[in-house]
Design brief:
single chain; mainly beta; 115 residues; 55% strand; 11 strands
């Protein structure tokens, strides 16, 4: 069974940066869609960004120009570079892989942005 493990979350001041990593337990990132989602307390989980193998990347309007998703298939890792962080970016961030109707989720990593 494939596993995804996120890391890189933490506490940062507004305007700061963090880079999240999502490591897969085996090589499968070259197929399917990799995405980052987030969920703040009391809110539904929302899509932040996703990337398809050989295809374009897409971002939520709220993070465009500030966040960048990238993938390193050789390292089985997907990254989310987050710049110019805002307090409203505070949430648990989840890594996701989707292929052929199957969703795989990581355990999540907390990102807290202080004002």
């Amino acid at each position: 069974q494939v596993q995804l493990v996120e890391s890189g979350g933490g506490l940062v001041q507004a305007g700061g940066s963090l880079r999240l990593s999502c490591a897969a337990s085996r090589s499968f990132l070259s197929i399917g869609t990799m995405g980052w989602y987030r969920q703040a307390p009391g809110n539904q989980r929302e899509l932040v960004a996703y990337t398809t193998s050989g295809g374009p990347t897409n971002y939520a309007d709220s993070v465009k120009g500030r966040f960048t998703i990238s993938r390193d298939n050789a390292k089985n890792t997907v990254y989310l570079q987050m710049n110019s962080l805002k307090p409203e970016d505070t949430a648990v961030y989840y890594c996701n892989h989707f292929f052929s109707g199957v969703n795989t989720w990581g355990q999540g990593t907390q990102v807290t942005v202080s004002s």
